């Protein structure tokens, strides 16, 4: 009962319409690349740490998994971008 | 935080220490009736004295120890002979009897030594469990993100 | 697109070290009853760190890895100094190190393989 009362007093919030950026700029892509590169370097560091006994195995494996996923994501994004470019180039005017 | 390799080393040293304790306890038991050893005396019971490994190590290790970091583990400090007097038994016909007809027997309590042995074996087993636990944890950790 | 990993060779050298250490440990274990035998071990941690420091160069560290005779154990009656528990534990630790090294290398190679496969698409 009390919960319903509280819900009743909340104003209904109009959801904002989804408005993606009209153009992706080259800087955005570079950021993703840099982020992935640093993830991969961190993974190398953690792996070395684990091997010389400075860090734990699970930390190293988690770091390597993050790098792997980040890299795959980047590859997919690149693929999509190239596809989009191709489609654009194929448009006849 | 200790790496898994440090933890293994620690468990290994514990195992070694337990084995020494077992050896000494079984030697005490085996010689509970030994009235004459090589040096002519009755067999003296022995004890294993343990100490923290870090105390005997370098300055660097002292520092780590003071900061509360990294446990170094246990080691045998010495194997000490018990100073307790022998158990005198009146037996004039015994070859090792003294002029007063008393024979000096080791002051070894068989039950106590057996309890020591059992406790030691339990500790040994516990350390073996630590080792397999460490191995299993490492295996699981290695599997993180595999096949994702 | 992304540079090939330079760090992988040092891991291979580390696995070589681990392999050699395994042989030494097995020899120690085989000699658990040999009179006056003193166990040998590699200065593994140091050799490993040396390989890591020189990972920019592709070859392994020149020369033999430092090894030492382990005099720390009290000799038994026949002079043998092999501590069975410590050798077995070292053997286990060495195996686990090897597994870690191979896992790391495998994952790196898998990433490269993915890059090659995906790069070939489009």
Features:
heterotrimer; B: 148 residues; two-stranded antiparallel ribbon; C: 122 residues; mainly alpha; two-stranded antiparallel sheet; 57% helix; elongated
**Biggest β-sheet: strands ordered side by side in the sheet of chain C:** 1-2
Helix/strand-derived category of chain A reads mainly alpha
Number of strands of chain C: 2
| Fraction in helix of chain A | over 70%
Shape estimate of chain C:
elongated
Largest sheet of chain A: none
Residue stretches of chain C low in confidence (pLDDT < 50, at least 5 long) are none
Strand segment tally of chain A: 0
Shape of chain A: flat
Rg over CA atoms of chain A: 23 Å
Radius of gyration of chain C: 19 Å
Along the chain, the helix and strand elements of chain C come as HEHEH
Largest interface: A-C, 25 and 24 residues
Cα end-to-end separation of chain A = 63 Å
Task: Provide a concise account of the structure shown.
Helices cover 46% and strands 16% of the residues of chain B. Chain B is built from three helices and four strands; from the N terminus they run αβαβββα. The chains are: A mainly alpha (93), B alpha+beta (148), C mainly alpha (122).
């Amino acid at each position: 009962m009390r919960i319903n009362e509280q819900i009743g007093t909340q104003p209904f919030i109009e959801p904002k319409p989804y408005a993606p950026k009209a153009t992706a700029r080259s800087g955005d892509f570079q950021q993703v690349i840099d982020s992935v590169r640093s993830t991969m370097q961190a993974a190398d560091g953690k792996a070395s740490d684990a091997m010389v006994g400075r860090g734990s195995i699970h930390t190293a494996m988690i770091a390597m998994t993050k790098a792997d996923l980040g890299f795959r994501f980047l590859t997919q994004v690149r693929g999509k971008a190239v596809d989009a470019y191709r489609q654009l180039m194929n448009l006849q005017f | 935080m200790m790496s898994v390799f440090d933890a293994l080393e620690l468990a290994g040293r514990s195992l070694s220490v337990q084995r020494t304790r077992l050896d000494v306890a079984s030697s005490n038991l085996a010689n509970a009736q030994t009235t004459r050893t090589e040096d002519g005396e009755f067999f003296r019971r022995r004890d294993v004295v343990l100490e923290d490994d870090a105390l005997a190590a370098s300055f660097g290790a002292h520092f780590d120890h003071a900061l509360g970091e990294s446990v170094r583990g246990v080691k045998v400090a010495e194997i000490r002979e018990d100073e307790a007097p022998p158990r005198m038994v009146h037996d004039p016909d015994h070859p090792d009897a003294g002029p007063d007809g008393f024979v000096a027997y080791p002051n070894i309590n068989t039950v106590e030594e057996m309890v020591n042995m059992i406790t030691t074996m339990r500790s040994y087993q516990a350390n073996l469990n630590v080792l397999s636990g460490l191995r299993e944890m490492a295996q699981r950790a290695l599997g993180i993100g595999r096949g994702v | 697109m992304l540079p090939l990993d330079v760090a992988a060779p040092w891991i291979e050298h580390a696995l070589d070290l681990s392999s050699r250490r395994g042989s030494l440990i097995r020899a120690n274990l085989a000699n658990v009853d040999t009179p006056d035998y003193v166990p040998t071990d590699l200065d593994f941690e140091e050799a490993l760190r040396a390989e890591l420091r020189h990972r920019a160069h592709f070859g392994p560290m020149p020369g033999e890895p430092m090894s030492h005779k382990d005099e720390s154990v009290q000799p038994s009656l026949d002079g043998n100094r092999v501590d069975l528990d410590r050798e077995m534990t070292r053997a286990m630790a060495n195996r686990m190190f090897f597994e870690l090294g191979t896992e790391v290398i495998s994952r790196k190679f898998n990433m490269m393989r993915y890059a090659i496969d995906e790069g070939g698409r489009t």
